[in-house]
Specification:
The protein has about 300 residues and is of the alpha/beta class. It has three domains: about 5-85, Multidrug-efflux Transporter Regulator, Chain: A, Domain 2 (Orthogonal Bundle), CATH 1.10.1660.10; about 100-180, Methyltransferase, Methionine Synthase (B12-binding Domains), Chain A, domain 1 (Orthogonal Bundle); about 185-305, 3-Layer(aba) Sandwich (Rossmann fold), CATH 3.40.50. The protein is built from 13 helices and eight strands. The chain has helices spanning about 10-15, 20-30, 45-60, 65-75, 80-85, 100-115, 120-130, 135-155, 160-180, 200-210, 225-235, 250-265, 295-305; strands at about 5-10, 35, 45, 190, 215-220, 240-245, 270, 285-290. It has a five-stranded parallel sheet with strand order 5-4-6-7-8, with helices on both faces. Helix 12 (about 250-265) links the parallel strand 6 (about 240-245) and strand 7 (about 270).
Length: about 300
């Protein structure tokens, strides 16, 4: 007869490093675990529940919201065995190799870019995309890899040509993911960069994430003139316009786009990116998006009244 180990909530807390109130909250709010009960009503957690809790902790520790982590685990987008590890043998807090694995992949990607070998670059990108769903890799692997390219170029470790080639490889993967995303019957959101802005990987990644949520997205690309934004908004009757504001130099032109979309009557005008802030508009109602792509997409989807 096979005996299955079960743990009280106190033991589960010790094994996962999570407080008992948080474990109960995740159970109640997200249904990620369903402990059995003793005759006296005390919760008992099996090994699978411990793995799920460890996976939730690992994802939340790397910046996921608890609701997004629970959804990804529940829908099978993230396999708990890939992110959860056993607690430290010495009784200390549990550890995860996820961060170290991501750092190694990013280092390898930059090294492949420096080799100017398309085969090596594509091979590492294959590994990055094989690490999980798009939502699981975009914020913690793909965009950090793109940022690492820029940092290596700025430090003189990577040539302009090598940086452009590797960034182009990322862009092609994102474009393919955008094309593969669900296409709704009507354009609900237009996404792009303001005049003069050309750093488009973040905006394109956002467009992919939003489209994967079932939102009808039209990605306009980089360096879009103000009058073109207005024309597209008028033609599509889009209910949301999302402008990427990547650098301080983009702020003035982004503000012009925001004001023009407000004047056109677009219901939700949102800005995101490293240089985005609510003071880009003198008109009330600008939506400042969170820095992580997955959370930003959820925010816009919710604003549009869709299930997030």
């Amino acid at each position: 007869m096979v005996r299955h180990t079960v743990y009280t909530i106190k033991q589960a807390s010790a094994r996962t490093g999570l407080g008992a109130p948080l474990i109960r909250a995740w159970e109640r709010r997200y249904g990620v675990i369903a402990p059995t009960r003793t005759a006296s009503g005390y919760r008992l957690y099996d090994e699978q529940a411990i793995k799920v809790l460890l996976a939730m902790r690992a994802l939340v520790d790397t910046g996921w919201t608890a609701s997004e982590a629970a959804r990804a685990i529940g829908e099978g987008e993230v396999a708990v065995d890939e992110v959860a590890v056993e607690p430290a043998a010495n009784g200390g807090p549990p550890t995860t190799t996820a961060a170290a694995h991501r750092a190694r992949l990013i280092d390898r990607f930059v090294a492949a870019a420096g080799s100017t070998s398309p085969a090596e670059t594509e091979a590492v990108l294959d590994e990055i995309f094989a690490s999980g769903s798009f939502e699981a890799v975009v914020d913690d692997l793909l965009l950090p890899a793109a940022a690492a390219l820029g940092e290596s170029w700025a430090a003189g470790r990577l040539s302009v040509a090598a940086e452009h080639a590797a960034s182009g490889a990322i862009g092609r993967r994102l474009a393919a993911a955008y094309q593969a995303g669900a296409i709704a019957g009507r354009t609900a959101a237009i996404v792009g960069l303001p005049p003069g802005s050309r750093h488009e990987l973040g905006a394109l990644a956002f467009a992919v994430a939003l489209r994967r949520r079932g939102v009808g997205v039209l990605y306009l690309g980089p360096d879009v003139p103000v009058d073109a934004w207005v024309d597209v908004a008028r033609r599509t009757r889009a209910r949301a316009g999302v402008i990427g504001v990547v650098t301080e130099a983009d702020r003035e032109s982004a503000a012009a786009v925001v004001e023009a979309l407000h004047a056109e009557g677009v219901q939700t005008v949102a800005v995101g990116g490293a240089a985005a802030s609510p003071d880009l508009s003198t008109t009330d109602g600008i939506l400042l998006l969170p820095p992580r792509v997955v959370e930003a997409a959820a925010t816009v989807a919710e604003a549009l009244g869709r299930r997030s």
